[in-house]
Amino acid sequence: MSKLKRAKQFMPLEKLGLFLSFACAVHCLAMPFVFFFAPYFIGTLAFGTLVEWILVASSFLLAAYLLVSDYLQHRKVRPLIFLGIGLLIKLVDIFIGQQADEWIFGTLLGISVAYAYWINFKHKSACTCKIKS
């Protein structure tokens, strides 16, 4: 299968989900630098709790919808496993509740969900069945 055909199989919602996962990871990676270089940014909208929860919730909900629907069609469980790992990471982060370690959990969460999308894309691009667009 050509690379162009595989790229067309990556649906707009999957692109959005992958973007949200990476945005979450980049957001969490930027936090230590923001804390060090610009303390007045901590309380702003860009690094507030509301933005964090919007990123996490939208990323998880979209990933769950897309990955479960693809699982029902292709029966490949690995993407769901990595989505579950991401959910477990977030639950551990909530349970621990330390502000200093939040960026580590957020980065791992974003990478885990992005990896779930990537594995799902690999399954879909190797599949010989017709993919609904």
List the helices and strands and how they pair.
Blueprint (H helix, E strand, L loop, with lengths): L2 H7 L2 H26 L11 H26 L3 H19 L5 H25 L7
Helix pairs in contact: 2-3, 2-5, 3-4, 3-5, 4-5
Q: Structural class of the secondary structure composition?
A: mainly alpha
> What is the 3D form?
elongated
- Beta-strand portion reads under 5%
Unreliable segments of 5+ consecutive residues: none
Number of domains: 1
Number of strands: 0
The run of helices and strands is: HHHHH
What gap, in angstroms, lies between the N and C termini? 17 Å
Number of helices: 5
For the biggest sheet, the summary is:
none
Please explain how this structure is put together.
The protein has 133 residues and is mostly helical. It has one domain (11-126). The chain is 77% helix and 0% strand. It is elongated, with a radius of gyration of 16 Å.
